[in-house]
Amino acid sequence: MLKAPFLISLLLCALLFALPASAQYSTQDAPVSFILTPSYPRPYQQVTVSPRSSLIDLSASSVTISANGVVIQKGTGTQPASVTVGGSGDVTKITVSVLGPDGRTYTATSSVRPADVALVVEPDTTSHPLYKGLPLVASAGVVRLVAVPDLRTTARVAMDPTKLVYQWKLGSQVLTSASGIGRSVLVATAPIRYRDAVITLTVTSPDSSVVAEAKTTITPVDPITRIYPYDPLLGPDYDHALTSAFSLSGTEASFRVVPYYFSAPPTIEWSVGGRAQGAQQDITVRSTGSGAGSATLEVRAKTTENLQSASSRTTLRFGEGASPFSIFGF
Question: Which residues, other chains included, contact 315 with Cβ-Cβ below 8 Å and sequence gap of 6+?
């Protein structure tokens, strides 16, 4: 069972840039090390092994890089080599052996067990109930991040996610109150528009032998509104958002506005021909008299708390016959 999430504010976060992760491995009895990039490889991922030494001239040495006893590269200097790790739970033993100018051999070894973790971003923003996609992040809106880890033992048995250690970071800052055992959910307030936030999650097994990492960028978007034809019997036609014009097939027609990507339900303001017509989600427009004509239907949506706003408009034509956007296509 997931532990209760913590609310973390990201509002003041400036634009952050993610750097590739790397780690350095060495042995205690030899002045040789190597850098592994990325430091927490995913299953079947290709990693780069870069030999390093501050005491030995590698350019004058014979350097051998091996994976599970198989020589991957042999030469001189710090030239990196690529190694493909195994599946989740499989151990890849990487060895860097250096034959120095003094005739002595120095070795650095590390065992790498790949793991994976996926981050699911769930913005809490407005949309219509039949919306097929995932809503985008609203400026200063609530965002829920859910971790789905895949850490396995050497026998490829999946570890219990409730017993893993989760460390959440905003940029380089550790979110201590949201991190800990079983803390696989982070609830946060997104930054304001044009200020992205980089969230990094590191998941570790209880004995710290297996580590996985995931990173995502929270990017708010501007809200939008869309106007849809609304049939009193069939309901709104969410397949046809009105853009340029709509022809009334009779003397009246109904419409529904859907505000997208607002952090909270906004206030609605309809107008027809520049005259205010109400603040409800749906509106019915009627034509009077005879002959053909047109009028502008406009809707505005706005929130006071986060100063979000968006508007849409379309031209209503009456006295011209059936609408090309009719649900039945007449």
Answer: 244, 245, 246, 294, 295, 296, 297
Q: Can you give the pTM of this predicted structure? A: 0.80
6, pLDDT greater than 50? no
In the DSSP assignment, the letter for residue 152 is: B
Which residues, 6+ apart, have CB-to-CB distance to 128 below 8 Å? 236, 238, 258
Judge contact between 86 and 114, C-beta under 8 A.
yes
> Cα 27–22–17 angle (5° rounding)?
155
Query: Given pLDDT bands bounded at 50, 70 and 90, which one contains residue 304?
Result: confident
Reduced to 3 states, what is the DSSP secondary structure of residue 35?
strand
Sign of the CA dihedral with 230 first, then 231, 235, and 238 last: negative
Name the nearest CA neighbour of 131 among 196, 234, 228.
Answer: 228
Phi, psi for residue 180 in degrees, rounded to 5:
145, -175
